[in-house]
Structures are given as structure tokens and as C-alpha cells.
Design brief:
Elements (H helix, E strand, L loop, with lengths): L4 E8 L5 H10 L12 E8 L6 E8 L2 H8 L2 H13 L5 E5 L9
Antiparallel strand pairs: 1-3, 1-4, 2-3
Length: about 100
Amino acid sequence: MSVNYGFNATLTARPGKADELVELLLSGLTEGNPGASEHCLVYLVCRSATDPNTIHVTEGWSSEQDHHRIFAGAAAQAIVAQVKELVASEGSYTDYVPVGGKATL
């Protein structure tokens, strides 16, 4: 399966909530959550090197339809609701169509 759809999100945590936000986002990888789906091929959570309250999320999916279907589910919606409580404002999102590269951790 290859990555045919993805996005980057940049989130700014409320003061003192960045660690909790990172933990919540990483919980998306546990069984039953969106990042554990066979259709989620890249799921990377990063902190800004200059601002510890800025969190970047990169996701790569088998298709845009798979992403939207998985995120319409209860598990994803629960995480999204919790994220909204931890961020200072609406994040910025950039959708993209991958053309090549590598993701290895």
C-alpha cells in the first residue's frame, strides 16, 4: 500500500499542556485508534525545536477517502475533542499528495 494522501497540522498547546497534547496525539497509534489503522501509513508527532508549545503532526494515508472514513469514527472524534481542549487556538492544516520520500523511525 502506498501513501496517496496526507497532511501536516501545526498545533499550539495551551500553556503547560504541551506534554499532555503530545501524549494524546501519540495515543492515536494504539490499537483501535486512527493511527493504528492499516490505511494510516505515516503518523509522526514532533515538537518545534524553538517553541515547546508548538506541535507538528504529519500523517500519510492510503487515500483521502480512507482518512475521512477513519476520522468520522468514534475513536478519532474522541481524540479530536480532547485535542480541542488542549490547544490555544485553531491549528493550521495543509493537505498534500505525496510524490516520494521516506519515513523511518
